[in-house]
Amino acid sequence: MSPRLSLSFLLCATVVAVGCSATRDEPDEPTSLGESELSATYSDGTDTYRYVDTHDEYRNTGVVDRSRFLYFRRVNGKRAVGLTQDCAWVEPDNAYEILDVLRRHDARITFFISGPFIFNSPRRGLAGGLVERNLPVIRRMIDEGHEFANHTQNHPHNNQSIDWVKENGNLAAGWSAVLARLYPGTSPPPNARMRNYWRAPYGEYDARSLGLASKAGFPFHFGWNVDVKDAVGFPSCSDEPQNARCLSAKKMTDTVLGFAERNAWSLDGFVVLSHLQNPYRWGRSPDGLERLLNTIAEKDHVVAKISEMFVEEPAPDPTPNGAAPRLGATCAEGCIYSGMCVAQNPGARKYYDAEGTELVCVKRGECAALCAVTGQ
Asked: CA-CA distance, 327 to 199, in Å (whole number)?
């Protein structure tokens, strides 16, 4: 496993790579990992690569320790659910069912792209050509505002023989080829670009794989807080209804809602793992993805893309004892919680008072001077 990082933010945000309002601005791409406690390093003998892992410690956690989950922020003042979907072996009909539900709910999510989704032969990569039948699916994903991340060329299990630079680099090259096909002679929209995020297949990784992925240009590793188990191979309840281990669209949704309930719907954000291809037809059943998105809205949460939720370098928790910050209260020496300065600092860490009002910590009288919170 990767070195123990206090940045296991992955579990604290309801990241349902499902989406956000079409009117939201695209967030800036993180440019630096910095020298923060969020990151760790790996050396391949010639250079040292810094990375951030959001998955360690949280993948099997039912109830999240919120004091250690500082990596996601609310989106437009609402707690966020990051619905993410891995895309590898996909039937277009299944994909369209999922996309139809997301569009009805005006939801935009994060898709992790793997070689089988875009390459005829993942092993050969671009040399084997692109999967033509999936190009219209990808074009629709882009047109409807979703975002994209890396899930490797061959979807391999982790071991010391895997070249993670090639796995991530070749997949990125394939994605660029897809965009060139979809947008010949013109620039694709900003959301079409592949972000510098990746997800290790099967959730298997160590410091070496994280470091080499960073070397390939993908320093941010995103896992998940709750897995709907649609890629495990359980029998479908429609085929084996008496099998206690069978899986259905309803059970998939119940898994996510159960996690949210155990955490009292109190997390600023959490990440859901699901797959664009699954035999349980999550998008077809009204008790599946449709019910999940309806419930998220009823709970006054929002579905968001990972990039909207991710805090690259979060400030220390200003309220370790659970007390909400107050407008005008001291947040650091010479600094106060301000509501007026929020709009001028869209990328700053947000805090919320007891009424849910967004606040930022700034130097008294200077909206442009952000402060690191040290406590109230």
From this structure: 38
E-assigned strands of 97-246?
A: 110-113, 147-150, 194-198, 220-221, 226-227
In Å, how far are 28, 84, 193, 198 from 225, measured between CA atoms? 24, 11, 25, 16
Query: Tens-of-pLDDT digits for all 376 residues of the chain?
Result: 333 333 333 333 344 433 322 333 343 444 445 445 567 899 999 999 999 988 765 556 788 877 667 678 899 999 999 999 999 999 999 999 999 999 999 999 999 999 999 999 999 999 999 999 999 999 999 999 999 999 999 999 999 999 999 999 999 999 999 999 999 999 999 999 999 999 999 999 999 999 999 999 999 999 999 999 999 999 999 999 999 999 999 999 999 999 999 999 999 999 999 999 888 999 999 999 999 999 999 999 999 999 999 876 544 444 444 467 888 888 888 888 898 898 888 767 777 777 777 888 888 888 888 887 765 4
Query: How many CA atoms are closer than 13 Å to the CA of 106, on its beta-carbon side?
Result: 7
Distances, alpha carbon 40 to alpha carbons 8, 83, 129, 218, in Å: 12, 26, 37, 14
Read off the pTM: 0.77
Domains plus CATH for the chain?
9-309 (3.20.20.370), 315-376 (no CATH)
If we measure between CA atoms, which residue out of 290, 277, 275, 279 comes closest to residue 239? 279
For residues 26 and 4, what is the distance between their CA atoms, to the nearest angstrom? Answer: 31
- Chain centre to alpha carbon of residue 323: 28
Using CA atoms, how far apart are residues 48 and 65, in angstroms rounded to an integer? 31
- Backbone phi and psi for residue 157, each to the nearest 5 degrees, phi listed first: -70, 150
Is 15 within 8 Å of 271 (Cβ atoms)? yes
